[in-house]
Design a protein that fits this description.
By secondary structure, this protein is an all-alpha fold. It is 78% helix and 0% strand. The mean pLDDT is 76.
C-alpha cells in the first residue's frame, strides 16, 4: 500500500517537473529567438558597411568558424576601404 502511494506521488511530481520544464523551455525560446534575430541583423549591418556580404554573419553561429571569420575580417583589406582609396586620390 505504501509503495503504491509513494509511486503515485513520485509520478505526479515528475509530471509536474516535465510540465514546468516545457513551460520554461517555451519562455526561453520566446526570449532567445528575438535575441538571435537581433544578433544576426546587427552583424549583417556591420558586414555590409564593411563591404562584405551579410551571409558571413552565419559563421557566428559556428564557434570555430567564427574565430576564423573574425581573423579574416580583422586583417583583410575591406572592400569599402578599397573603394574610398580609388575614389579619393592622394595629395
Amino acid at each position: 500500500m505504501i509503495d503504491l502511494f509513494t509511486m503515485l506521488v513520485s509520478w505526479g511530481l515528475s509530471s509536474i517537473g516535465w510540465i514546468l520544464s516545457a513551460v520554461f523551455s517555451l519562455i526561453g525560446l520566446v526570449i532567445l529567438l528575438p535575441l538571435v534575430i537581433l544578433w544576426f541583423w546587427a552583424f549583417v549591418r556591420i558586414l555590409n558597411k564593411m563591404g562584405y556580404s551579410g551571409w558571413w554573419s552565419l559563421l557566428t553561429f559556428i564557434p570555430p568558424l567564427s574565430l576564423v571569420a573574425l581573423w579574416i575580417v580583422a586583417f583583410a583589406d575591406w572592400p569599402s576601404q578599397r573603394r574610398l582609396i580609388t575614389v579619393i586620390p592622394p595629395r
